[in-house]
Structures are given as C-alpha cells and as structure tokens.
Amino acid sequence: MLGMYDMPALQPANDRFWSLIRAHLGEGPEHLTRDRDFWDIWRDPELVFAQTCGMPYRTRLHGEVQLVGTPDYGLPGCPPGHYCSVFVAQFDDDRDLEGLVAGTFAYNEALSQSGWAAPVVHLADLGLTPNSLLETGGHALSAQAVAEGRADLASLDALTWTLLTEHTDLGDKLRQVTTTKPTPMLPYITSNGQDAGRIGQAVRAAIASLTSEDRQALHIHGLIDIAAEDYLAVPNPPTPQAIRTQT
Fold first, then answer.
1. Is 241 inside a domain boundary?
2. What mean pLDDT is predicted for residues 13-17?
3. CA nearest 240: which of 87, 89, 132, 143?
4. Which of 47, 114, 121, 243 has a Cα-to-Cα distance from 21 of 20 to 30 A?
C-alpha cells in the first residue's frame, strides 16, 4: 500500500514502482491495495510493504511492525529522509501566522504528523494556539477548505504541497506562510514476520530501476535508514479536544 502519496495522477507511477519492488523481491501481491482501511493494512500480519506516517508509527505501530527504510524526496531545507510541514493561507490573505491562527485552522486528522503534530508543536513554541479547528479528513481537503474560505490556515506536508501545486490549481489559490522544523519522513514498514532487510534491498533496487519520468513524478531520490528512536523522539502535541478546551 502506497496510499500516502497516491493521488490519481501518481497511481500509474506508484503501480510501476511496486511492480519493480515485487520483481526484485521475487514475491508479494500483484497489485497495490487501495480498497482497505489504512490501519487494517498497517496491522495486517501478512503485510509485505506499506508507507505509514511518523505519528501513527510512534504512538501505535512501534513494536507491531518493522521499519524497512525512509524514502528521501529531496525536499528543500530538509536533511535526506526528512520533511517539514507547510502552513498555507489564501493567496491574497496577507496576515501573519499570529493573525491567521486567530481564525480557523484546518487539519486532516489528529494522528497526522504533518497535518496536526508538527504545526501544533510549532505554534505552541511561539506561544500560539488555534482559535478554532476544522477536521477535514485529508491534506487536499484542508487546502481546499482554506481556498474556499472555510478555514484561514492549514498545514500540509511539504511533499503533498509540492504535488498539489503540480497537479491541481490550489497552488494558484494559496500561499506558503512558513514551515515547521524538519522531522523524519513517512517510513516504509512491513510486518514483524517479514525480512525487512531483504525488502529494503528490493526497494533500493526498484528506485534505481525507475525511469527518470517516474522518479521525477514520485520525487523519490533514494532510501535511507532512520532509527526507530529518531521517530519516537518527535514530540506529541495536545489532542484537538485539549486545544478546544483551552480556547
């Protein structure tokens, strides 16, 4: 399952990426899974390969799955294998972060590192708290909520923001306000019964085998090893309910 970055425009490239991984691995499902709940897939004892988010990994999946490796997407201002969150506002809204936080903050879900954890920790470090919250269910939906004026501010992971600017018109409707500190990128995982090292070798070989067009479309540069301890060291934010209680 590669559903974290699997918008329709990228599905053919993701399919080819998985086919290469499977070929180098010599086994595995013929097709990517797109019709099951993420948590069911992540916790499936038969899981061969998937991508999860840092916050679900450190809060619920650590110990239940193995890390295969961390993709490096070559994001500006981030070390290899890391990413940051991008705060976005309407293109013609010139308020600073403090002014925007006084309105409504759109977030995808409370277990998202880039959509909730990183921005809330960033704001707390500045002594700021969102005045009002809007849960949307997805990064693109958060961006759309800002574009439509239903929210004043949203936080998107840097790769998603890049992909939205490439494949939708949201880049023309929104502006980047600021970014958070980098944290480890969304890791690839496998179940505890699999050979994570062998799968990692297959992923590296598949990345090297990608066409330049697919590599560019997926923005993938390589696979690096980031220790579980580095993921677990990332701070957890207050829950949305705690934020609502504060405000």
1. no
2. 98
3. 132
4. 114
